[in-house]
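tool=predict chain=A
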Amino acid sequence: MSAVADSSGNDLGAPCCAEIARAKGVLFDLDGTLVDTLDSLWRAGNAVLDRMELGTRSRHSYRRAVGYGTTRMFETLLTEGNQEPSAALLEACTRAMVALYPEYWPRFALAFEGLAELVALLAQRGVRMGVVSNREQATVSAMLDRFFPAQRWQVVLGAGKFPNKPDPEGCSYAAQCLGMQPREVVLVGDTEVDILAARNAGMIAAAVSWGFRDGATLRAAAPSAIAESPWELAALFGLPNAARPTCQRDR
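tool=predict ok
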């Protein structure tokens, strides 16, 4: 297992991650952070594009397009195909995706290994937790009920009530629901969108590299730390029995 890294790629030991370990609250992103939704989004999105005779896209294209919400995903996909989608077309694609996606994610989405255990350990430690996603509210709630049935989240916030991340309004509201100041909260996510949202809201940003963006993209956004596995993320939080990250100065 590779070491936890900071935004410059330096290895981090537990003392280096003190601000994360001291956090009283944690907000998780959903897609690519708690749940592996790439396959479900690729299949459902292509079904929408195919029905509208807009051509399908690769899984890699979806990996790059996901993060800012459903409408922005289709805008990125269609622009990649040298199309100039109108607002009406994007709205139609979004409506179709919202209607169709509930048929796809139960078959093709999976919780990432180790995340349920991590969430349970944080809960045992008394950490208050929530989820802030750019996915539609009904889908967010349904996924959490399926993949994390034992967890009682203090707040679950999907798209619609506030502007999508990286706008800070939703994250700030979620911090209030946790009963905390933003500086006391870690936002865990897998894209630059989450890192920017954390920074805009005055939160601590912890990135994970098992989702929709690679390490280079995450490092460029400068989070406080990047974890490459749930066990490394657990180590950042100083959880018991988590493998201690190797620090450069210890070598």
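DSSP finds eleven helices and eight strands in the chain. The beta strands are 25-28, 35-36, 110-111, 128-136, 155-159, 185-189, 204-208, 225-227.
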